[in-house]
Every structure is written in C-alpha cells, then in structure tokens.
Design goal:
single chain, 223 residues, alpha+beta, 434 Repressor (Amino-terminal Domain), Umud Fragment, subunit A, nine-stranded mixed β-sheet, two-stranded antiparallel sheet, 8 helices
Length: 223
C-alpha cells in the first residue's frame, strides 16, 4: 500500500510537501509512509478515498483503477496559500498571556518573546510552544507551531491540524488536534496523532479560539 501512495502522488503531479499538507501531516511523515517505514493511518486513507476519489480496492490490493472518479483538488487549491519570500513570525508565550483567547484578541498589543524567520512560508499570524504528547510523533512537547488565526468554525477544512482553545468547566484547555466532522449536530471530532489518545467530540460553542497550524519547528537538542 505504501508504494501506491507514492503512485497516487505522482499521478496527481504533487510534491511530497503538497500531498503532506493535504493529509495534514509533515513531509517527513509522508516520506516514511512512501518508503514503508510507517503505516498509512485510517484517517489518511479516508482522506485519499473520500477527498481524492482513490479506489479503496486499488489502494488495498493494487487491482482495478486508481481512481473511482476524477480527483477534485478544489479544496486543496483553495487552502494552499502563496508563500512569502521572508517574514518575521512573532513567537509568543502562552504562560505570559494566560492562554490563546487573550493572545488572539489582543495580539497587536502583546510583546513577542522572539521572532522566527523562515523563507517561503505561508502567511502566519504567530507561533507558540506546545505542551503535551497528543500529536506525537508528529509533534512533541516543546515544539513550536506557527499558526494562522481563524474567526469562524465554518472556515475549517476537515481533517487539517488546528490549534484550539476549549472551555472545560470555565477553564481554558489549549491543544493541537485534527478536526473532523461529527455525526452529532453542533459538535466536531478532535483527533490525535498519538494512538494512545482517544478521539473526543466537543461542542462547537465550547471552542473559544481557533487557528490553522501552518508549520512546526522541532528542537532536537538544547545544547
């Protein structure tokens, strides 16, 4: 199956970065899938089948046609931002702002702890350090995520990775998750990369802040 993921990408004329973005994973994670070092998750399989019209039988066995219908890349094209040659992305401390809500509501007045300079990056509003292992091994505690703030849950692309603030009994819970549709009206499903974390459905009304994760930076050593 792993080699067939590469064939799909080649047939669509996508780079690894482009298909990885569509699947909501990193380029390194996609490379591991294509080389057989990692398995294709059920979530990624569903994206290939449901959004790109890949024939599930062909994906499993290699028999039949690659696609059930012409692949629709409309949503992918709409969410692919033009990259900037160079930008200074402010890095904020959540501890210093008491959470995402005050950060997003008063970001222009807050002083960043530093700035991140990465060439050819999509437009980002800011960056923060993350805590927790729900997205491990894609992200780990201490990594930096660069985000683009959203103002409406209707702007969400299902299956992408988001930075969220959720109200739990009056307290703010900040997390990074994949957002998927829920069968329950007024709810969304939050999905982790780490298989030890169960999927969780939350009321849309409890989401207090929302941002699309555009990129991540990992610190392999502090020395």
């Amino acid at each position: 199956m792993n080699q067939r993921v590469k064939l799909i990408r080649k047939e669509l004329g996508m780079t690894q970065e482009q298909l990885a973005q569509h699947l909501g994973i990193g380029k390194a994670a996609l490379s591991m899938i294509e080389t057989g070092k990692a398995a294709l998750s059920s979530r990624n399989r569903n994206i290939l089948v449901q959004e790109l019209n890949v024939n599930p039988d062909w994906l499993e066995t290699g028999k039949g046609c690659m696609f059930n219908a012409e692949p629709d890349l409309t949503s992918y094209l709409h969410r692919t931002d033009n990259s900037l040659p160079l930008q200074s992305v402010p890095l904020y401390s959540i501890e210093g702002t008491a959470g995402l809500v005050p950060l997003f509501s008063d970001q222009a007045q807050l002083k960043p702890v530093n700035f991140i300079h990465i060439p050819n990056l999509p437009k980002c509003d800011g960056a923060i350090y993350i805590v927790g292992d729900s997205m491990y091994p894609l992200l780990k505690s201490g990594d930096i995520v660069l985000y683009k703030q959203l103002h409406d849950i209707g702007d969400v692309f299902w299956g992408d990775m988001y930075l969220l603030s959720i109200d739990i009994d009056g307290e703010e819970y900040v997390t990074v998750k994949y957002i998927q549709k829920s069968d329950r009206k007024g709810y969304v499903k939050l999905v982790s990369q780490n298989p030890h974390h169960a999927d969780k459905e939350v009321e849309i009304a409890r989401i207090r802040a929302l941002a699309l994760v555009k990129a991540s930076i990992r610190m392999n050593s502090m020395r």
